[in-house]
Design a protein that fits this description.
Keywords: Membrane, Transmembrane, Transmembrane helix. Residues 93-104 have a biased composition (Basic and acidic residues). The chain has one domain (4-85). It is mainly alpha-helical. The longest helix has 26 residues, at 26-51. Helix 2 (26-51) packs parallel to helix 4 (71-85) and helix 3 (57-69) runs antiparallel to helix 4 (71-85). It has four helices and no strands. Helix content is 66%, strand content 0%.
Length: 114
């Protein structure tokens, strides 16, 4: 059994060892965190691509290969393509004037007869 004096010394020795273990593994934790984030980003882009209906099977397979064979850059490119192709369509312009019609706010167009 540890006496009061020996308990204090054991605690003083354990603290530097724990400190050394945590900070010696700090680069490992940083690297593991980065790899986890990159993997999560790639999985998220893979699921977004799988749910996309505007691509054929061959296009999806080639984009899956791009995501997983070129990890960060491939996923970023596919993310950009997905974002640009899945933007909502603009509503039809109801104020459009067909050729030959006159608008009450504008004078009629007089063209050249060449």
């Amino acid at each position: 059994m540890l006496t009061r004096r020996s308990r204090g010394t054991a605690q003083k020795r354990a603290a530097p060892q724990l400190y050394d273990k945590v900070f010696m593994n700090f680069p490992f934790f940083i690297a593991a965190s980065v790899l986890l984030l990159v993997g999560a980003y790639q999985v998220w882009i893979t699921f977004r691509l799988a749910k996309a209906v505007e691509y054929s099977r061959v296009q999806k397979l080639s984009q899956f290969a791009l995501i997983w064979l070129i990890p960060i850059l491939g996923a970023a490119v596919v993310h950009f393509v997905l974002a640009s192709s899945s933007q909502p369509e603009q509503p039809a312009d109801r104020a459009f004037i067909r050729q030959g019609e006159n608008h009450p706010d504008y004078p009629p167009f007089v063209g050249h007869d060449d």
